[in-house]
UniProtKB/TrEMBL annotation, chain A:
Protein name: Anaphase-promoting complex subunit 11
Zinc in keyword set: yes
Gene Ontology MF annotations: cullin family protein binding; ubiquitin protein ligase activity; zinc ion binding
Domain RING-type positions: 41-84
GO annotations of cellular component type: anaphase-promoting complex
Keyword annotations from UniProtKB, A to Z: Cell cycle, Cell division, Metal-binding, Mitosis, Ubl conjugation pathway, Zinc, Zinc-finger
Any Gene Ontology biological process: anaphase-promoting complex-dependent catabolic process
UniProtKB/TrEMBL annotation, chain B:
UniProt keyword terms in alphabetical order: Cell cycle, Cell division, Mitosis, Ubl conjugation pathway
Name this polypeptide is given: Anaphase-promoting complex subunit 2
Occurrences of domain Cullin family profile (ranges): 464-634
GO BP annotations listed: cell division; metaphase/anaphase transition of mitotic cell cycle; protein K11-linked ubiquitination; ubiquitin-dependent protein catabolic process
Source organism: Phanerochaete carnosa (strain HHB-10118-sp)
Residues in coiled coil: none
InterPro entries documented for this protein: ANAPC2, ANAPC2_C, Cullin_homology, Cullin_homology_sf, TPR_ANAPC2, WH-like_DNA-bd_sf, WH_DNA-bd_sf
């Protein structure tokens, strides 16, 4: 007996690959806007490629727009908002 | 004892009377002359019985005039008249017997229960008996004419006589005369020409030449007897009956053309022509006649409108069902209502019909909505101000609010019915301009420039706004819309969702861009998935074509994820890897239980093609490893699924003739077909994709939330003992996402009490001690 697939219409979700392998987690939120990573930052309307994430060297992850806005303020002193270490973007994602 | 004074007085009186009667004639010749005159005149006038009815004895006019002259000159005119009227009264029994005779003739026909069937049959075959009433009228008139004073006596004498005679006449007419008279009047309607008149009519009432109607004389006679004046209301009521009968016969259920004008024409042709007989017989010209009948004509016109309005009011529910075919009937009704104030009756009638025929559990929500929309459209025709609509709509709206599927129905019709085709009986009129939904703004009465809304503005804007305003917020609609859209989009396999896009664009105009942002993301997910799939297929062709969704922008999807087996899993993994290459910062998380698979099962003697949900596919794949499985083993192999789902999936294959349940929980692959299963294999390809929506409905979401809140409630009751409802509500407000009001909480607590989880005493809730 053999099962041959002719066509398969499936449904999937996309997730940012942020290293964790848990599937069922409710999803982490951006430390700045408290919106899930797979959502979009307050200034965006479309999630995903239009509102990407940014990985810090300190392993913290934010919506890119949120972080850039933060870094643009004087109070940021170019530090990660979570741990106050100097912000540097991690080049190698995951 | 007569004193001399008294004697003198009597003598004086006598002398005066004598002088008056003798009129200063010689001796007593004057007195004799007077006596002769009195006798001649009273003999001439004396009412006679039967014989007198024939012809008045000939008299000498000049001589008679002289007699009256003498009586008048003696100033005894009034006494003579009194004496004459007394005589009339005395002779009335002669008339009474005549009237009794004719009334008996008339009543014989209407006295029903008759001894034998044969005589009954004979009697009902006879013509109606108005003839006798006509004869009665004729004879009464002849009596009146015979006894009438001579014109020489002057007008006052004639009117005094007419009054006395008619008073007597009416006093002896029995009550059944009214009935008979009514019949007679009604019968005259049909006496349009000499030919159509019955035989007796020209016999009793000879026709005057040159008069259009044969009943002309009859009416003159009735006028003479004062019957027309006395029975005016009766005559009109005959007209009314006529109108009512005609309208109910010709207009009932006739809604596809306007009938009001038709009825008015009919009335002026039939009824008004007839009415010239009682009211405008002696009109010199048409204008004169019109003037004479102006009053009665407008009363009849009013009655036409009223009758038609009554009829349409009774039929209103069905008229609305028939809309727009029944548009003319509504125009009629509108015109009638302008003349007759029956609006409250209309509201009552429609409300009653709605309650009886529409707002009951047997009616489909879609049907109620459709009828509601029709009601809106129809009542706007009748009453553009919308006052009627407001009164009628209120119960419907209240009822709809209580129905759980109202929102879904409205939303479904907003996006057009998927399967029923483009032009189904959608509530939305395609031609209606799409307008943004006006949020009802509360009027600011403190504004010094406040002005009332123009009376013809109407409460609703367009139909959709009216429907949506059934609920207080449009948030619910957007939520339901999102769910519906998700169901639609997830079911799409060929990637063609132009229709959905178009609908969303239209709805954006209504609800505003911001409210539908989520839907926008869903649509973009669809486009992106398509593009991504095209790209990946170019790299490595795959039978898998996924729709990749942004999970926070879709309604919660049912989560009972399991692991696909065998080759399916491999395909998924391959595809996910390919995806990761294409989008290095993203990964795919499969929602294995959603979607559908078109597959072919090759067996020893046959191939079965089927379109099945993923779980079915996963299970049958396992059978390629081993021919026999128990349900428990299968579940272990695919992961967390409910037993019932597994059994259901297996049943699908049993029905397709691929598997067989040998013993309970024990399934075996049928490598070669069994007799009974050939039937199933015949229908190919089988479609076993369930119609169930994969999306969690609003109710399910709420129930899920409530389960969380129950934990809170349980906790606080455990810690604090017993609590009143408002206290629970207050505390729950601290819980995240809690948005219920106290009534909803009360309903929930009540449900919990029914399940035996809590008890309530004096408004204090506490946990049921176990």
């Amino acid at each position: 007996m053999k099962v041959t697939i002719k066509n398969w219409h499936a449904i999937a979700q996309w997730r940012w690959d942020i290293g964790s392998n848990e599937v069922d987690d409710e999803g982490d939120v951006c430390g700045i806007c408290r919106v899930p990573y797979e959502g979009c930052c307050p200034s965006c309307k479309m999630p995903g490629d239009d509102c990407p994430l940014i990985w810090g060297e300190c392993s913290h992850v934010f919506h890119m727009h949120c972080l850039l806005k933060w870094l643009g303020t004087a109070a940021s002193k170019q530090q990660c908002p979570m741990d106050r270490r100097p912000w540097g973007e991690s080049i190698v994602s995951s | 004892m007569a004193t001399s004074t008294l004697c003198n007085q009597v003598a004086e009186k006598w002398q005066r009377s004598f002088a008056k009667l003798n009129r200063e004639k010689e001796g007593i010749t004057g007195l004799l002359e007077f006596t002769r005159a009195w006798l001649t005149a009273s003999d001439q006038l004396r009412p006679r019985d039967k014989s007198g009815l024939a012809v008045k004895p000939p008299y000498d006019k000049t001589k008679l005039r002289e007699c009256f002259e003498i009586i008048r000159s003696c100033n005894l005119h009034a006494v003579f008249l009194d004496d004459y009227l007394d005589a009339v009264g005395r002779h009335l029994p002669a008339i009474t017997s005549d009237i009794e005779f004719y009334m008996k003739m008339y009543e014989v026909h209407i006295t029903y229960p008759l001894p034998t069937f044969a005589s009954w049959l004979r009697l009902i075959q006879r013509e109606p008996k108005v003839e006798h009433i006509a004869m009665l009228i004729n004879i009464a008139a002849r009596w009146q004419r015979a006894w009438a004073p001579l014109p020489e006596m002057g007008a006052s004498a004639i009117s005094a006589f007419t009054c006395t005679f008619q008073t007597h006449l009416y006093s002896i007419l029995p009550p059944s005369f009214t009935e008979g008279f009514r019949d007679l009047i009604a019968a005259t309607f049909d006496f349009k020409s000499i030919e159509s008149a019955p035989d007796w009519l020209p016999l009793r009432f000879p026709c005057t030449p040159g008069v259009p109607r044969p009943d002309f004389t009859l009416w003159i006679v009735m006028q003479e007897l004062g019957l027309i004046e006395r029975y005016e209301t009766l005559i009109l009521s005959v007209c009314y009956e006529r109108i009512e009968k005609h309208i109910s016969e010709t207009c009932g259920k006739v809604w596809d053309r306007q009938v009001l004008q038709e009825m008015r024409d009919w009335m002026s042709r039939e009824v008004v022509t007839w009415l010239t007989m009682p009211y405008a017989r002696d009109a010199r010209s048409a204008e004169h006649a019109a003037m004479l009948m102006k009053g009665v004509g407008s009363r009849l016109d009013y009655h036409v409108c009223k009758t038609l309005a009554d009829l349409r009011t009774l039929e209103i529910f069905d008229i609305i069902i028939d809309y727009p075919d029944s548009r003319p009937a509504l125009d009629d009704l509108k015109e009638c209502l302008q003349r007759v104030d029956q609006r409250s009756q209309l509201v009552q009638s429609l409300r009653k019909a709605n309650r009886r025929r529409l707002l009951h559990p047997g009616a489909d929500t879609k049907l109620i909505l459709t009828q509601y929309v029709s009601i809106i459209r129809c009542l706007r025709i009748i009453d553009p101000q919308g006052v009627l609509l407001f009164k009628v709509a209120d119960p419907i709206r209240r009822y709809l609010r209580d129905r759980p599927d109202t929102i879904r129905c409205i939303v479904a019709s907003l996006v057009g019915d998927g399967e029923s085709g483009e032009s189904g009986d959608s509530l939305v009129d395609e031609n209606e301009p799409i307008q943004p939904i006006n949020q009802t703004q509360l009027e600011d009465y403190t504004d010094p420039n406040w002005e009332p809304e123009p009376i013809d503005a109407g409460p609703g804007n367009d139909i959709i706004s009216t429907l949506i305003s059934i609920y207080d917020s449009q948030e619910l609609f957007v939520k339901e819309l999102q769910i519906l859209l998700a169901q639609r989009l997830l079911a799409i396999k060929d990637g063609n969702f132009d229709r959905e896009r178009r609908n969303i664009e239209i709805l954006k105009i209504r609800f505003g861009e911001a409210a539908l942002q989520v839907c926008e993301v869903m649509l973009r997910d669809m486009t992106d998935s398509k593009r991504m799939d095209q790209h990946i297929q170019q790299q490595t062709a795959s039978d898998l074509h996924p729709t990749v969704i942004s999970r926070h922008f879709w309604p919660p999807l049912q989560t009972n994820t399991f692991t696909m087996s065998g080759q399916f899993r491999k395909i998924q993994e391959d595809y996910a890897n390919e995806f990761h290459v294409f989008k290095p910062d993203k990964k795919l998380v499969w929602m294995s239980h959603l979607g559908s698979i078109n597959l072919e099962v090759e067996l020893d003697d046959r191939t079965v093609e089927a379109e099945v949900p993923p779980l079915e596919a996963a299970l049958i794949e396992l059978f390629s490893e081993q021919d026999e499985w128990t349900v428990a083993d299968l579940i272990v192999n695919v992961g967390s699924i409910e037993r019932s789902n597994a059994v259901k999936a297996l049943t699908t294959w049993v029905e397709l003739g691929v598997l067989k349940e040998d013993s309970p929980d024990h399934y075996r692959l049928l490598k070669t077909a069994e007799e009974a299963s050939t039937r199933a294999t015949a229908r190919q390809p089988a479609v076993a994709v369930e119609e169930l929506p994969p999306v969690v409905t609003v109710q399910q979401q709420q129930a899920e939330q409530m389960r969380v809140f129950w934990m809170y409630i349980e906790g606080m009751l455990k810690n604090l003992g017993q609590l009143p409802l408002d206290r629970i509500q207050q505390m729950l407000k601290f819980a995240p996402n809690y948005d219920r009001n106290i009534d909803q909480l009360a309903a929930f607590m009540e449900a919990a009490r029914r399940e035996g989880l809590v008890t309530v005493t004096n408004g204090l809730w506490k946990l049921q001690s176990k």
